[in-house]
Design a protein that fits this description.
With 93 residues, the protein is α+β, with helices and mostly antiparallel strands. It has 2 helices and 4 strands. The strands form 2 sheets. A two-stranded antiparallel ribbon has the order 1-2. It has a two-stranded antiparallel ribbon with strand order 3-4. Keywords: DNA-binding.
């Protein structure tokens, strides 16, 4: 089924304005990526939405070998950062 949508416009920077009807149909959001696929005759373009990736998509994939105490890790990071800042301040004197 072919459907003609309102045409988009390309700017001098190569940015393409996608008609609101198409954005709604494909459920596109700001930051989403699109793949443009040329068909055999190099004249027909298929657009495939590629959703933006989020760190939330990978949470839990890697399993820790041992349990971690995140409060201790955060405290250790604060201590290391304080040492780094102190060292830089001493070098300025």
């Amino acid at each position: 089924m072919e459907k003609q949508l309102i045409s988009g416009r390309m700017t001098s920077k190569g940015q393409l304005t996608i008609p609101v009807e198409l954005r709604t149909l494909l459920n596109l959001q700001e930051g989403d990526r699109l793949a443009f696929v040329l068909r055999e005759n190099n004249k027909i373009i298929e657009v495939q939405p590629k959703k933006k990736k989020s760190i939330r998509n990978v949470i839990g994939i890697l399993k820790a070998q041992s349990p971690h105490n995140f409060n201790e890790a955060r405290e250790q990071a604060h201590i290391e950062r304080a040492k780094d800042i102190d060292s830089k301040m001493r070098n300025l004197e």
